[in-house]
Structures are given as C-alpha cells and as structure tokens.
Amino acid sequence: MYKKRWIGGACLLLLAGIGWCAAQAWSSHVGEQALERLTARLDARQGWQAARHEVARGWWHSTGVLRLEIAGPGGDPLRVSLPYRVRHGVLSSHLKGEVDVTYAGRALLATEAAPTWQATYRTLSGEMQGRLQWSAFTSRGVLPQVTSLDVGAGELSLRGRAGDLRYHLRSAAWRVLLGEASLDVGTLDVEGRHRSGERWFHHSLDLSLASLTWQGDAPFSLHALDYKAAMRLDDDTFRYHGEGGVDDIAVAGQSVAAGRMALRLERIDADALRALIARLQETRADGAHSAIAASRWARLTPLIVKVLRDSPRLTLESMQVTSEAFGVDSRAFGEVTLDGDDPAALAATPVTSPAFWRRLQQRLEGRITLVDAPPLLALYLGLAPDTTRLVFRVDAGQWRVNEHALRW
C-alpha cells in the first residue's frame, strides 16, 4: 500500500517537474521572441540600425548586446550599446544591463557614469515594466559646437504592452556651453501615453519645465513652463489639441510678460497624412543637401495638398497675455480655416515656390478677436489708442482689422 503511494507520488512529482521544465522552456522562448520583435521594430525605423550580438540563450539565463546606430548631429554615427542579462522565470522574465553611448567613435559617458536599466516582461499577459536611470555627468569636446554638456540625474520609466505604452521622464537640470554662450534647462518632468494600431494612434503628453535660460546674444529666460497635448490619428482624420503656458518671460533679466494659450487643429485628412509620412520616410535617405531637399519637397507637393483637402481648421480657444512692465492684460480667441477645395489648382505649383504660399494664403478665412488690446498696438494698426477690442478678419487671404485693411 505504502509502496504504491510512494510510486504514485513519485510519478506526480515527475510529471510536475516535466511540466515545470516545459513551462520554463516556453517562457524563455517567449522572452527571446519578445527581444527579437523589439530588435526588428527598432531596425525597421527609418535611419536606425539595430542588431543583437554575442547572444547566449538558455532556459534560465540569456545574455547579449543590443546595438543601435543612428546619424547624429553633423552626420557622424551615434551608437548606443546595451549589454543585457535576462533571468527567465515561468511567469515572467527579468532583464537588466547598462548603456554605453559613443558619438563619432568617442565615448560620451565615462564607464562609472554609464546609465543602468532594468525591466520585467510578463509571459502570459505580454505586459512590460522598465526603468532607465542615470547619474549626473559631464561630457566635454565630444558633440560638435558644444564646449561642455552637464547632464543632471534622472530616470525614464515605461510600462504597458505592445500598442499601449505609458512613459514618465524626470530629470534634474542640464547645462550646455556653446563657446561664450550657454543654455540652462531646469528640472524637467514629462509624462505620456501612446496607443497605436496598424492605421491609428492616440498620444497624450503632459510636460512641465522649471526654467529655460539662454545667456549670449539676446539673453532671455522662461520660468514655470507647462504644456499638455493630445494627438489622434484615426481612420478618417487627424486632430490635435494643445494647451501651454509660461509664468514669467524675462529679457536681459527684466520680467516682461506671462501668458497662456490653448489651440485645436482638426479636419486633417488621415489617409493623405499617412501617405505623406510614408513617402517622407522613403525619401529621407536621399540626403540633406539643399538642392536634393528642395527637389524632394517639390515632388511631395501633391501629397501635401491632399492633406489639406478636408479644409483644416485651426481654433484659438483662448489666449491670455499679461505684462506689468507694459501694462498689458489681453485675451484672444477665434478660428481660421484653410479652404481645401480644388486641390489640383493648388498642386500645380510646387511647395518650394513662393507662389504656392501666396495661393495658400488666398484660401484663408476666419476671425480672431483680441480683447483689452494695448493702446500701442491699436496705434500701430492705425486705430485710436482707446480701441480696446480688435477684430481681425481674413477673407480670401485679405486681412482686415475692425473693417480696415491690414497691411503687414
């Protein structure tokens, strides 16, 4: 009796072990497939080269190096190398590694400053969580035109699955020295979500920047910037909505203004936009020489015109500008439409010709209202200084303000 129980128990343990080994093998296979798909997607991006090297596969552990290469500033190659180690589990795989970046053959980061990353891939659901972290570092004499680059510590976190990705970027201040000039970028926080399918995508973005300061010719600084955006490309149309503001704009150390604005763009033909993006990706390899670029844009004229055939509309939902220095507290709202009828007539002239843009302007119609306009602006437009409400109208490209012809 006991012998039979022992034999039965041993058989159950054997079956469980076989099942566990099979599940482990399947999990490692799924993890490898996910890495292969990621590499293929990166390599398929225009201008990117991606490949895995030194790959060692196993049931419990895998290692390798993912190498990416793109053209950096000035055309020299920017190479990113990501050595990785994978620990496979039945329900999930855990990855970690470092990041090595070189530009024109020179390392941007010292070995001790190399960013680290880690990720978890859920085998059954296909969900992923990842995080890239870096410490503050300084790079000198590597990037063209840049004397030195001081990068603040930060991290980028990702989570989601194929077709639905959330991201969150946080970074301390950066400083870029360009000879005698400098650009200081304050604390940055960017959060967003990208959902996509074969023919559509929805992207939302929420950005905040503590400050942006330029020291050099015409110095200026911006403080407390924020920006929110939502972009949707559906089967028929592309739409955009954005809202942003800045708490303080200073010129040469003197505070001059603050403002906020909300915009909406709609009625962009989706099929034409997809075709235009695909053609741009195909022709990007033609080169960056001005003659080649001009010829390329001229050939794209019919596609660009098709993007406009649904008569795009730009709506200024709200704008608020305040300035204690100039005594300004103004608001604006309105909308402008571009007539997309008879696209063949517009496509007859290439976009590289000034005549194209004149014809495009002649298709504008709309109205924008400015409330509590500053007296100096009214005087500049030839109106009485006590005119506080300015109504800008455009009809067939001809602008008028308070029914008076406006000449730019």
Describe this structure in words.
The protein has 408 residues and is an alpha+beta fold. The chain folds into 3 domains: 21-134; 136-233; 253-408, no CATH class. It is 23% helix and 50% strand. The chain is built from 7 helices and 25 strands. It has a 25-stranded antiparallel sheet that branches. The longest helix has 43 residues, at 2-44. The chain is globular, with a radius of gyration of 28 Å.
List keywords for this structure.
globular; 25 strands; 408 residues
> How does the overall form come out from the CA principal axes?
globular
**Contiguous runs where pLDDT drops below 50 for at least 5 residues:** 12-24
Structural category: alpha+beta
Alpha-carbon distance between the two ends = 103 Å
| Beta-strand percent range | over 45%
Report the major sheet. 25 strands, antiparallel
Count of the domains: 3
The gyration radius over C-alpha positions equals 28 Å
Work out the helicity level.
10-25%
